[in-house]
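[agent] plan:
  1. take the single chain provided in the ticket
  2. run structure prediction with default settings
  3. attach structure tokens to the ticket
  4. add a short note for the reviewer (M.T.)
[agent] executing step 1
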Amino acid sequence: MTPELEQAIRAAGPVIDQPAAKALYAPLLADAPRGGAVVRDIAYGDDERHRLDLYLPLGADAPAPVVIFLHGGGFVRGDKGDRYHVGDYFSRHGVLAVLPNYRLGPRHRWPAGAQDVSSVLAWARDNVAAHGGNPEHIVLVGESAGAAHIAAATLMRRFHPPGGLKLAGVFLASGVYNAELELLARSQLGIATPDPRNEAYFGTDFAAYRAMSTVAQIDADPFPLALSYAELDPIQMQAQAGELFARLVTRHGFQPRISVVRGHNHLTQVYSINSGDEALSGLMLAFVRKPLA
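[agent] step 2 finished; step 3 output follows
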């Protein structure tokens, strides 16, 4: 990260401003190295959002590790195409990258995202070998809402695909893991009322929020897992990463890694991927390659 970029990010503070974050990194990403060939818009389900892109790995002499990367978007927006730089980054490092879209609120509500993660995982197991990937080495990575969906899909046994998870690991970056907390502490966390994101996905039956909060519903057996949050994330993301880490360790037998992405906010950490800044991408790549280490 250049001093100028860091100054601009720190001056903005803990904001979620997609146009500003994208504009900051647009010049760097325009000149960034590209990955291998891309196979676009493969169907993995029946909905129009059930489409994924494959970024084929460069320089892979053996079946490549596979990363499934789920974009964010506050449960109501986002597109795999806006994360092309993530696909390029993993591809040029010898990883087969699977970037899916998934159903969005308010048309589709909880647990649509978790169900779609399970469907993508099942598709990947059956199909990545034909594209140079190793179906025995699949890592799920999600940011923001994507992390929330992956957390629910993997930590709540009811969403596991037939045959179980069989994952190499899971990496969660700045996700929402406790919808009930965000409901009950809106003033402290600076969350609008009505909540334009959570209510669009979790609905307005607030008595049901605990049953939709991943931290309160964990029943999966331990697997390799990493958590991260940005130094300038909104406080609710920082609090929920800490809460999920604590519950996993003290109640469920997990030993997750936990990291702070220095100098970044909620979105700049993601747009920095493939820009030459390894603050988040380096953590992800190391985990994707060796999640058990």
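[agent] step 4 note for reviewer: Residues 148 and 261 are 18 Å apart (CA to CA).
[agent] ticket updated
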